[in-house]
Amino acid sequence: MPVRTGVLTSKRVLPMHDDDIANIMRALGHPVRLEILRILATQQQGQCCCADVTDSLTLAQSTVSQHIKVLHDAGLIERKPHGTRNRYCIRHDRLAELNLAFGGLLTGLAPVAANTETELA
Amino acid sequence: MPVRTGVLTSKRVLPMHDDDIANIMRALGHPVRLEILRILATQQQGQCCCADVTDSLTLAQSTVSQHIKVLHDAGLIERKPHGTRNRYCIRHDRLAELNLAFGGLLTGLAPVAANTETELA
DNA sequence: CCGATTGATCGGTGGATTGCGATGGAAGAT
DNA sequence: ATCTTCCATCGCAATCCACCGATCAATCGG
Predict the structure, then answer these.
(1) pLDDT tens digit string along A55-73?
(2) Contact A69, A78 (CB under 8 A)
(3) Among chain A residues 34 through 93, which have CB within 7 angstroms of nucleic chain D?
(4) Order of all β-strands in the sheet with A47-48
(5) Domains in chain B and their CATH numbers?
(6) Average pLDDT for residues B56-71, to the nearest whole number?
(7) Which residues contact B82 (CB under 8 A, 6 or more apart)?
(8) Does the record bear Zinc-finger in its keywords (chains A, B) (predicted)?
(9) Which one of A20, A42, B21, B77 is CB 3.0 to 4.6 Å from A5, fit for a cystine?
């Protein structure tokens, strides 16, 4: 099931809806997945292959691959086939997008902004 | 701007670990739960009872109560018994804490030690 | 006292998630 | 061509999650 969270046109990013945010939150809702993101972030060029991630964890390769798939389906990481390996790297654009959506979520939950939401469009 | 992940100097909030963040992310990883938070936020005093939430959704009362429990267990909302009802309200302090932790998470995932956050065009 | 309302919790069902080992295709090495 | 490495995917078991109806303690109104 492709996730298709967040409509990303050429440069404009349309706002995320609850379903999109919830999807990404669920993808981030597992410590192993957070760890995988950290592992990717600390790599030299910000990318590494599945075997490297597996070596850094105490999980089977298939399990790691599955977690990677969840992150990939959520659009949080990118896969680049490179020879016999796949290189994965964090999609910082999506992270930025998520950061915006998260900020908007918190703003919408703030007590002051409880009413009158007409300035947005 | 510098980023402080998780620790508030005045009230001494302990930093969140991956498990904590993942827990909260999972709690936020369901559209109904996001909707419940929004419903709470749009109430007059920022609080309402379970029945009000149930009326605003198309779910059984037991299901809503369960979602509320998840949010409560994650520390995102607060329960105040009030007569025959329970009033729920958002814990904005925890939201702020989460915001810090989330910002720290994203900062930790940013490209190493280099700003280079310009557009990828 | 009794009846009504609220809402947490229990039990059950069905589907998703997490973990594993095994399989097999693709690409580089020999 | 053959061997090896990488890793996505399948099949399976265990567990968790979402949803429901039913139940029951607590509170309020009579």
Answers:
(1) 999 999 999 999 999 999 9
(2) no
(3) 49-52, 61-62, 65-66, 68-69, 79, 84-86
(4) A47-48, A85-90, A77-82
(5) 18-108 (1.10.10.10)
(6) 97
(7) B49
(8) no
(9) A20
